[in-house]
Amino acid sequence: MKALILIGGYGTRLRPLTLTVPKPLVDFGDKPILAHQIHALAEAGVKEIILAVNNQPPELMASLKGFEDIYNVKIIISIENEPLGTAGPLRLAKEMILKDNESGMFFVFNSDVICDYPLDKFIEFHKQHGKEGTILTTVVEDPSKYGVIVHQEDGKIDRFVEKPLVFVGNKINAGLYLLNVSVIDRIELRPTSIEREVFPQMASEGELYQMTLNGYWMDIGQPKDYLIGQKLFLQSQRDRETGVLAKGSLIVGDVMIHPSAQVDPTAQLGPNVVIGADCVIGAGTRIYDSTILARTVVHGYSLIQGSIIGWQNTIGKWSRIQGLTVTAEDVQLKDETFLNGTMILPHKAIAASYPNAGTIV
Ligand code: GDD
Ligand code: MG
């Protein structure tokens, strides 16, 4: 089996984190977003993964060898000269997808989606209905920013409407597909959207089915959704009893602490907290609904709530950080700093407080 992961754009909605780290390499739970996808694909028997990119961040290229070794897959790159949208890259990679493809099908993943990947069931269902494509779907409260799907009881899709302006339904495209290689011939080599041009046509011909996801799902392309995604990820670790969640008298709810992090025994963490590799969390600290990315030091008695603290930050003691604050890589805060809904750009030393939400420093 093969897979293609669509990696486009510059991750602008996940700024300022993505100013120094390409979105697929932003850590989520215990590993980078891309590693979750590669891991799931490898477990489902995928041997070769094509990354469809329209730029080549050097950090991403440098990390691929490591992923190949860990997950025992081959990773190849298909580069666009101009952004080809969500369908064009499939056509561009046609030869790569077809070469030695005995199964006659391939996975396509949006790169910013995270879920409990039910890939074995997905393959089984796709083979069983025998049509050209299957889309994984999920139900959301606000479907307007997604692709909406209307289907029959057996899964056959009647309509696919991308970003509908009027309410069509709340079952949405989760951004994971299993397609027969014949779908590639439906696509021209030009910038084109699979959601607006290819799927509606396939649905009208009765060639498109859906399978509803059990379990959590999130498009983590923006800070608010990233934090919701972390919460769902932690919950699913608890439900599946994977044994990776932290335990302790001052741990509240679901918390994940990287084994290399040092957490003072008087720090109170949780619920919904992820502490990254090599972090140091000081005495009396209180952290909830937040992610602290790798190599960050939080000095004593600080409070962090509903925020993402970037890599290699130093948070001075008695600071208070809240309201969906996001700090980029290498930010230093002096003692007693107050941040509320603040975005801090990379490589900054901050000597003032920013109590008004929306400030970019
Ligand atoms: N290689 C390449 N080239 N990839 C691209 C390009 C491009 O020109 N444009 C977008 N992508 C990638 C993005 O990086 C992402 O992985 C995927 O294609 C989807 O693009 P987004 O920009 O994230 O789309 P969206 O989130 O608004 O909507 C999509 O995802 C929803 C689920 O999260 C659609 O597929 C919706 O139908 C779906 O519901
Ligand atoms: Mg997206």
Describe how the helices and strands are arranged:
Blueprint: E1 2-7, E2 27-28, E3 31-32, H1 33-43, E4 48-53, H2 58-71, E5 74-79, H3 88-92, H4 94-98, E6 105-110, E7 113-115, H5 119-129, E8 133-139, E9 147-151, E10 157-162, E11 171-180, H6 194-204, E12 208-212, E13 217-219, H7 223-239, E14 255-257, E15 262-263, E16 268-269, E17 273-275, E18 280-281, E19 286-288, E20 290-292, E21 297-298, E22 303-305, E23 308-309, E24 314-315, E25 320-322, E26 326-327, E27 331-333, E28 338-340, E29 343-344, E30 348-350
Parallel strand pairs: 1-4, 1-6, 4-5, 8-12, 14-17, 15-18, 16-19, 17-20, 18-21, 19-22, 20-23, 21-24, 22-25, 23-26, 24-27, 25-28, 26-29, 27-30
Antiparallel strand pairs: 2-3, 6-11, 7-13, 8-11, 9-10
Residues 6-9, 52-54, 80, 83-86, 89, 110-113, 146-147, 162, 172-173, 175, 195, 219, 221 line the site of guanosine-5'-diphosphate-alpha-D-mannose (GDD).
Summarize the structure.
With 361 residues, the protein is of the alpha/beta class.
Structural overview:
The chain is of the alpha/beta class. It has 2 domains: 2-219, Spore Coat Polysaccharide Biosynthesis Protein SpsA, Chain A (Alpha-Beta Complex); 239-350, 3 Solenoid (UDP N-Acetylglucosamine Acyltransferase, domain 1). The protein has helices at residues 33-43, 58-71, 88-92, 94-98, 119-129, 194-204, 223-239; strands spanning 2-7, 27-28, 31-32, 48-53, 74-79, 105-110, 113-115, 133-139, 147-151, 157-162, 171-180, 208-212, 217-219, 255-257, 262-263, 268-269, 273-275, 280-281, 286-288, 290-292, 297-298, 303-305, 308-309, 314-315, 320-322, 326-327, 331-333, 338-340, 343-344, 348-350. It has a 7-stranded mixed sheet. Belongs to the transferase hexapeptide repeat family. It comes from Stylonychia lemnae. Pathway: Nucleotide-sugar biosynthesis; GDP-alpha-D-mannose biosynthesis; GDP-alpha-D-mannose from alpha-D-mannose 1-phosphate (GTP route): step 1/1.
